[in-house]
Design a protein that fits this description.
The complex is a heterotrimer of chains A (284), B (237) and C (335).
Chain A lengths: L3 H28 L7 H17 L4 H22 L8 H23 L13 E4 L2 E4 H23 L1 H11 L1 H6 L4 H27 L5 H16 L4 H22 L2 H18 L9
Antiparallel strand pairs in A: 1-2
Chain B lengths: L2 E12 L2 E12 L3 E5 L6 H9 L6 E6 L2 E2 L5 H7 L1 E4 L11 H8 L8 H11 L15 H14 L4 E5 L7 H17 L3 E5 L3 H7 L3 E5 L2 E6 L1 H6 L1 H10 L1
Parallel strand pairs in B: 3-8, 3-9, 6-7, 7-8
Antiparallel strand pairs in B: 1-2, 1-4, 4-5, 9-10
Helix pairs in contact in B: 3-5, 4-5, 6-7
Chain C lengths: L2 H11 L2 H15 L6 H26 L7 H17 L8 H25 L5 H21 L1 H4 L5 E2 L4 E4 L3 E4 L3 H23 L2 H11 L1 H5 L5 H27 L1 E2 L6 H14 L4 H22 L3 H15 L3 H9 L7
Antiparallel strand pairs in C: 1-4, 2-3
Helix pairs in contact in C: 3-8, 3-11, 3-12, 3-13, 4-5, 4-11, 5-11, 8-11, 12-13, 12-15, 13-15
The chains are: A mainly alpha (284), B alpha/beta (237), C mainly alpha (335).
């Protein structure tokens, strides 16, 4: 007896998490072309901010506001000190961001210790939809994912900043000649990407807690989502990539262990990349 | 004389823009020919198609009678079609000597040292053989690249704007160099060019490309008188 | 001229890196006389890590391919050594010899398959980093979860290898000072192999591919084939290093395959000097030695310090330690 509600819920859940986690990278890597290997670490920082905030007695909702700001500031530090010198050196960007990932991870261990910390879940009670018991928090995450996609789309398509940002990314020389402050736009775009990673960390913290080791998993998954989905296509890429990777992981985990499912998904992702290097929706 | 290169109804589109429009081109062996045309006419796309950098949407490419449509870049180069890029594409980090040595290809000539000297003499770089390629000035780099292409032992040389960025004097000397190469090495040469004086100096047949297909063909003098060609250049100039 | 004088002249004419390597090898040969067995054990580890670093140094410095997965090959080599003592044990044949043949072969084959799959396509070089990173993660996860083969977190124990000639003698290298020589030999041997590859027409082509692959392709070189071949050699070298490491430590467990080690290798090579084989070796030995010293001083914080040094190297000191020395003393040759 196939439990459709369960399958749909699982798939939706897996996809939503990936959308939330990968969106920041879709902006920084997919749009700006910056290979940010610190992405996972930034998510982890977000999770720990959520922990710190809730531990100090504030509500989880406060954490959702504080985390993106804190991580955006971390992103600011990264961008101003190092990243902005390396925009035309992709390999060095990759290495430098990896260095940051190490430093950030170690700092987290220094400040918070090496074991995982739990973060309270505001919606732990399950709710019944179509005969299945679904944790409410999953619904919240799905709504968050959808909301973020909409907001990001609107921002980059219609706002003044969004338009300038896209112009700069496409052709910064031209944009600069037309009077746009290119450095500032790069900085803000990077910060937004980082902030989104922070939000993602806080958003998943109630489920997975704050753990210095989870960053890597998110890093690899997020990169696969963006690469498989297609760089340059913010919405379609993130949605498509998340759907494919989240969906297949969810489907597989019904028939095998988590580990095996993830291995197969990674292998599939590699095959997709090989067959269509510009990504499923890519090709700018 | 047989054709060293022949394209049949070559088509290439990018996002709805037709860059190459049923291009039929034939190049007899042993000759020098020039390709001219306004910007956007599809000249570099043509080179990209025949060298394997791009795959045509439809049409065939024949090199020395063999169908090479869809072959990979290195396979076509191995057949003997070697290209000089528009922006100097030499190994900046290496010496002139190494550049030529690498350019010999996988099968180095038996008399590598002698051949090296031969080529260096042709491109007038014999006394700069151990200098780093990156330190050479633009015009010299262009000549080094021509030397490298030559070292590869090609049957057909493709030159993409060989005199870009050169002074008039350098341009004329390059034309003479190309004529020497054609005579001495018996290589066929196709050159994309903008500089009419260069084309005149070569006194080779000219093909005019416009919007991805051949507009006119013939000697320089005829082309210059051609009204259609004039309109195309003036219109898009 | 006497033999000594001729040697002196030859030494004087040798390139900078050759001098360093020769001097280093002599010192390395003499070191056990003054080292306690414990330090010999440590040094042996460093040599194997240096061999691992060398594999990346060849790949990255000479072809320009950055692999975040060399530890996967190292780890696989280590497990192969463990398995040859456990599951693949054939009485009468020295298990270590089996492993030392299988490890490079299996790793080379896997690298070959991967290379065929990835290099013969339009996958961007930077994606290779993500893909090899994912592979390390996958292998580590497998090592943790497939306990029947890999032993999970508990790992697999194995004895120190023996040198033997069937029927004549069988001598187990339990003495750390003796095994030290095995690892030193492996490192020097690996270096000579890489050097032979690099100082040849093949090596020249590698550098051409690294600098401008499109140009090299358009000169008729099948660049994918070159990349795959070097990837296979690098995998094989890492596999041998891993196999020896397993029998040195007499224990194998998942971290030996994992991404932590993979990324550390990148740091060793970047800091040591990514453009020269000697840089990779130096980085491997130096950083591990420094880590041992630092961790006894500042515990786990040394990773933090390492991370900061790494960022500094990437941003400002791209050539790494040996790279700068080579420039300063004008070594010329890229070795």
């Amino acid at each position: 007896m196939i439990d459709f509600a369960s399958i749909i819920s699982q798939t939706l859940f897996a996809t939503s998490i990936l959308i939330v986690a990968a969106l920041g990278l879709a902006i920084i890597f997919g749009m700006m072309g910056v290979i940010n290997l610190a992405h996972g670490a930034l998510i982890t920082v977000g999770a720990y901010v959520a922990y710190a905030v809730t531990n100090a007695g504030l509500s989880i909702w406060a954490a959702f506001l504080v985390a993106p700001v804190v991580v955006a500031l971390v992103g600011l530090v990264m961008e101003r000190t190092v990243i902005n010198r390396l925009y035309d050196r992709p390999v060095d960007t990759l290495l430098a961001t990896w260095g940051f990932a190490l430093v950030i991870q170690e700092l987290i261990k220094v400040i918070f210790g090496t074991s995982a910390q739990s973060v309270p879940n505001p919606y732990s009670a399950p709710v019944e939809i179509m005969g299945a018991n679904l944790p409410q928090y999953r619904i919240f995450l799905t709504a968050l994912a959808a909301g973020l996609l909409v907001v990001t789309y609107v921002t980059f398509k219609y706002t003044d900043f969004g338009v300038k940002s896209r112009a700069v990314i496409q052709n910064d020389e031209m944009a600069g000649l037309l009077g746009t402050d290119v450095r500032s736009i790069y900085m803000w775009t990077f910060m937004i990407g980082a902030g989104l990673a922070g939000l993602a960390g806080a958003a998943v913290a109630p489920i997975v807690g704050a753990d210095p080791r989870t960053g890597l998993g998110y890093l690899v998954q997020s990169f696969f989502v963006v690469i498989v989905g297609g760089t340059g296509q913010l919405l379609a890429g993130t949605l498509g990539g998340s759907g494919l990777i989240g969906g297949s992981a969810a489907a597989l985990s019904f028939v095998s262990s988590q580990t095996f499912a993830q291995t197969v998904v990674f292998a599939l992702a590699i095959v997709v990349i090989r067959l269509k290097p510009e990504g499923l929706f890519g090709g700018t | 004389m047989s054709a060293i290169l022949r394209t049949v109804d070559l088509v290439k589109e990018f996002d709805g823009v037709v860059a190459t429009d049923h291009l039929n081109y034939e190049m007899p062996e042993g000759e020098i020919q020039c390709i001219i045309g306004p910007n956007g006419a599809g000249k570099t796309t043509f080179f990209n198609l025949i060298t394997g950098v791009l795959t045509p949407d439809s049409g065939q490419i024949y090199f020395d009678g063999d169908d090479v449509t869809g072959e990979d870049i290195h396979e076509i180069a191995q057949r003997g079609m070697v290209r000089k890029y528009q922006t100097p594409s030499v190994y900046d980090e290496m010496s002139v000597r190494r550049n030529i040595h690498i350019a010999f290809g996988e099968d180095k000539p038996a008399d590598a040292e002698a051949r090296l000297t031969e080529i260096l003499d042709l491109i007038e770089l014999r006394d700069r053989v151990d200098e780093q390629a990156g330190t050479l000035d633009h015009g010299t780099k262009q000549w080094l690249e021509i030397g490298m292409v030559l070292a590869n032992g090609p049957r057909l040389v493709l030159l993409d704007e060989p005199t870009a960025g050169m002074t008039t004097d350098e341009t004329m000397r390059t034309a003479d160099l190309i004529t020497s190469i054609n005579e001495q090495e018996e290589t066929s040469i196709i050159a994309i060019e903008h500089d009419i004086e260069f084309v005149r100096r070569l006194s080779s047949p000219v093909t005019v490309l416009h919007q991805g297909s051949v507009l006119a063909q013939g000697p320089v003098e005829e082309i210059e008188e051609n009204e259609e060609v004039q309109n195309v250049y003036l219109g898009s100039g | 001229m006497s033999y000594i004088d001729r040697t002196k002249v030859a030494f004087g004419d040798a390139s900078g890196s050759t001098k360093v390597i020769l001097t280093g090898a002599v010192i390395g040969f003499l070191l056990p006389a003054v080292l306690s067995p414990y330090f010999a054990f440590l040094a042996a580890q460093y040599y194997l890590f240096a061999l691992l670093a060398l594999s990346l140094g060849l790949l990255w410095g000479y072809v320009g391919i950055l692999s975040f997965g060399q530890a996967a090959f190292f780890g696989l080599g280590a497990y192969i050594m463990a398995w040859s003592f456990q599951y693949m044990f054939v009485p009468g044949i020295n298990p270590a010899y089996v492993a030392l043949v299988l490890a490079p072969l299996v790793n080379g084959a896997i690298a070959g398959v991967l290379g065929l799959f990835l290099f013969y396509s339009d996958v961007k070089d930077v994606y290779f980093v993500i893909i090899t990173l994912a592979l390390s993660v996958i292998l580590e996860q497998l090592a943790v979860s497939v306990t029947s083969i890999f032993g999970g977190f508990n790992g697999i124990y194995l004895p120190r290898m023996a040198v033997s000639i069937p029927g004549v003698f069988n001598y187990q290298l339990s003495n750390d000072r003796l095994f030290y020589y095995v690892t030193l030999l492996a490192l020097v041997g690996g270096y000579l192999v890489c050097r032979r590859i690099v100082r040849s027409d093949f090596g020249e082509t590698l550098l051409a591919i690294k600098e401008n692959e499109a140009r090299t392709k358009s000169l008729g070189y099948n660049t994918a084939r070159y990349k795959t071949l070097v990837f296979m050699v690098a995998g094989a070298l890492a596999g041998v290093a891993g196999a020896l490491y397993a029998t040195l430590a007499q224990f194998v467990s998942p971290p030996v395959t994992g991404f932590v080690l993979s990324t550390e290798v990148v740091i060793w090579v970047a800091v040591g000097g990514r453009g020269l084989l000697l840089g990779a070796i130096t980085g491997g030995i130096l950083i591990n030695a420094a880590s041992t010293v630092l961790s006894s001083l500042v515990a786990d914080r040394y990773i933090l310090i390492l991370g900061l040094i790494f960022i500094a190297v990437v941003v400002a000191f791209r050539k790494g330690v040996v790279g700068y020395v080579a420039d300063r003393y004008d070594w010329g040759e890229k070795l």
